[in-house]
Amino acid sequence: TFSTNLEAYVGDALVSLTICALIISGGLGFIVFRDLGMRLRGTKKRLTTHSRIVLSVTLCLLVAGSLLFFWLERRHGMRDLPFGSKVLASLFLSTTPRTAGFDTLNPASLGHASTLLTILLMFIGASPGSTGGGVKTTTFFIVLLVVLKGADEEGRVSLGSRSLGINSIIKAFGVVGKGLLIVIASTTAILLLERGQVASGGGSLV
């Protein structure tokens, strides 16, 4: 990339949307592409539960993230941009943290709330079988479903006509728990190693 990453193309729809499309497709995973291919060829009547969850969570994260970034930065980091560029920048900000490292808006210009949102999207990451990292969209979905809906007496969580067993729930919370421990430990280590710079105002937690 350029010395300023892709910030010179913040208002360029062709560049922004092309990079976003590549990032999103790279983060969906090969399982989803296989299912979509079989569905389009007519060899499969419907997508698997996995693919439907991945596509739904990905869409929700993109839309919710874009709206939040637009609302948080429209009068701050994006205040000098025209409306169309703000929309493109918001979409790019919502897309890139989960599986790539590009930016069309200088991260230093973002407020603390936007930085925290970026960290959350990075933590969630991409989907299983993809080129991205994170705890994965399916894991995030299971944890969110359990938190919002709760489990029955047998430890199962209903999902339409299907249900998630206790083993899947334990694995999902285990992955998130390990991820949080790694984040907390690495953040603490960085703060300790860089405490002199932080104390002198050269850095901060966010």
Query: What would you call the quaternary organization?
Result: single chain
Instruction: Quickly give the structural class.
Output: mainly alpha
* Percent of residues in β-strands: under 5%
Biggest sheet descriptor = 2 strands, antiparallel
Count of helical stretches: 8
Rg over CA atoms: 19 Å
Mean pLDDT: 90
Low-confidence runs (pLDDT<50, min 5 residues)? Answer: none
Quote the distance from N terminus to C terminus.
Answer: 24 Å
> What are the secondary-structure elements, in order, as H or E?
HHHHHHEEHH
| Total count of strands | 2
**How would you describe the shape?**
globular
Assign a percent range to the helix content: 55-70%
Sheet with the most strands: spatial strand order: 1-2
Descriptive tags:
61% helix; mainly alpha; 206 residues; two-stranded antiparallel ribbon
